[in-house]
Amino acid sequence: MNNIFTDSRIKPAIQEGLKKIHFEKPTKVQEKVIPAMLSDLSVVVQAATGSGKTHAYLVPIFNEIDEDAHYVQAIVTLPSRELADQLYQVARQLRDAAGMHFSIAHLAGGTDRERQLEKYQNNTPQLVIATPGRLLDFVQKKVFIVDQVKTFVIDEADMTLDMGFLADIDQVASKMPKDVQIAAFSATIPVKLSNFLRKYMAHPDQIVIDNPSVIAPTIKNDLLDIGSKNRKSILYKLLTMGQPYLALVFANTKQTVDELTRYLQDQGLKVAKIHGGVTERERKRTLRQVEQGQFQYVVASDLAARGLDIDGVSLVINYEIPRDIEFVIHRIGRTGRNGLSGHAITLIREEEMNRIEDLEKMGVHFDFVELKNGELVPRKHYRSRENRQGKNRKLDTKLVGYVKKEKRKRKPGYKKKIKRAIQEDNRQKRKLEQRHEIRKAKRLRKRKREQGR
């Protein structure tokens, strides 16, 4: 099979640059996306984070850039400043390795806007890497013109939708040429995103790499029903059972992230935290320290699940299930990357099982485990108990006689009488079960109220 990195359509300098940064064998997404984009096709690519999609679009972009033409030729948007910063570093690495000489602008919220304005008003970049809000700001101020853009890439498109940035993207895209090549990369393609993309792409090349909703085979994906046990103490036990190279704990809110960080620090663990409330300077410092191996444990909100690329995560713990269950997939996808093995554990209580069923319908497979003697051991699937209930339901003692007598010959109508009696008995039992469920739900609500005080 031909290696797309050595395709004759790719400039020799880029081929050499890829070799220098040790890109020798393309990933599946690179094999499919690079030829499509080299053929000037617009693409919608559904691929999981960590599949190699960044270079899948950088290679065709670099290939089309005219180093002597000083106008904006390509734009890549990402929904968070961390992602934009990471892409900027990756793009510079490939540009320098290829010995190319063109200007790359990095525009993101949280960076010095005035300095950027001053820099690019007199020095138009040829490639722009930006967050949607800052990009729109610069386009509206006419810091640079986008009417000659050849390629427009929307990376992490579903996260862009989740964070409410599609309106900004829409305004920028409307100012581009009608024949601009558009490439959208996303782990999932929700209906709203699909409708938006259709506005600018009549017949895009649809590329799906595996099923991003299915957890990578390199990940052991466990589900732990904690019952009435204390969630924090279970978390501490899981983090200290083995020695994870780097453990990432996800919580739903900034408050919970702060609370868990304090709790784990009080237990003597060295813990870093990342969420939207942490200042830009602190976030950068924390990420640098994590990369340097100064922290073994990181507690984060969902922004970090999609907005950061932290290498070496060997364990992911979902402390709680997020409101948007698709985020479970993105969280778990932080581990088991690039062919390395990973371990994910999701903590749940019985009342959350319906959400697990929804995830299973999406193709997420869980191994059911329990904590015994300081280790995780397999347990039966939660549905096996439900399946047995129907089979093992005992008849009321007063009905046993009816059923035994049915074996003998009886007058017409006797069988119907038995069936009616059994049906009534089952109805009464269902009523009792429903009452039990209602009482259990009341107890759970009471427990939540008490925990909230």
Describe the structure.
The chain is of the alpha/beta class. The protein folds into three domains: 4-208, Rossmann fold (3-Layer(aba) Sandwich); 219-382, P-loop containing nucleotide triphosphate hydrolases (Rossmann fold), CATH 3.40.50.300; 393-452. The protein contains 18 helices and 15 strands. A hairpin with a 2-residue loop joins strand 14 (367-372) and strand 15. The chain is globular, with a radius of gyration of 28 Å.
Global Rg? 28 Å
The largest sheet is: 8 strands, mixed
Query: From the helix content, strand content and strand pairing, which structural class follows?
Result: alpha/beta
Oligomeric state: single chain
CATH topology of the largest domain: Rossmann fold
**CATH architecture verdict of the largest domain:** 3-Layer(aba) Sandwich
> What's the end-to-end separation, in Å?
63 Å
Name the CATH class of the largest domain: Alpha Beta
* Low-confidence segments: 387-392
**What share of residues is helical?**
40-55%
The total count of helices amounts to: 18
User: How large is the share of residues in beta strands?
Assistant: 15-25%
Task: State the fourth-level CATH superfamily of the largest domain.
Answer: P-loop containing nucleotide triphosphate hydrolases
Features:
alpha/beta, Rossmann fold, 3 domains, eight-stranded mixed sheet, seven-stranded parallel sheet, globular
How is the secondary structure organized here?
Layout: H1 12-20, H2 28-38, E1 43-46, H3 53-64, E2 74-77, H4 81-97, E3 104-107, H5 113-121, E4 127-130, H6 132-140, E5 151-154, H7 157-162, H8 166-173, E6 181-186, H9 191-200, E7 205-208, E8 219-225, H10 231-241, E9 247-250, H11 254-266, E10 271-274, H12 280-291, E11 297-300, H13 302-307, E12 315-318, H14 326-332, E13 342-348, H15 353-361, E14 367-372, E15 375-378, H16 382-392, H17 397-406, H18 414-452
Parallel strand pairs: 1-6, 1-7, 2-4, 2-5, 3-4, 5-6, 8-13, 8-14, 9-11, 9-12, 10-11, 12-13
Antiparallel strand pairs: 14-15
Helix pairs in contact: 1-4, 2-3, 6-8, 17-18
